[in-house]
Amino acid sequence: MIALRQGALEIRQFLRSREQVVFTMAFPVLMIVIFASIFDGEIGGGVRFTQYFVTGMIATGLMTAGFQALAIQIPIERDRGVLKRLRGTPMPPWVYFAGKVLMVAFIAVAETILLLVVATLLFDLELPSSGRLWLTFLWVAALGTTACTLCGIAFSSLARTGRSAPAVVTPVALVLQFISGVFFVFTSLPTWMQQVAAVFPLKWMCQGLRAVFLPGSFGAQEPGGSFELGTVALVLGAWCVLGLALCLTTFRWTTRRDG
Question: Terminal CA-to-CA distance of the chain, rounded, Å?
Answer without folding.
Answer: 33
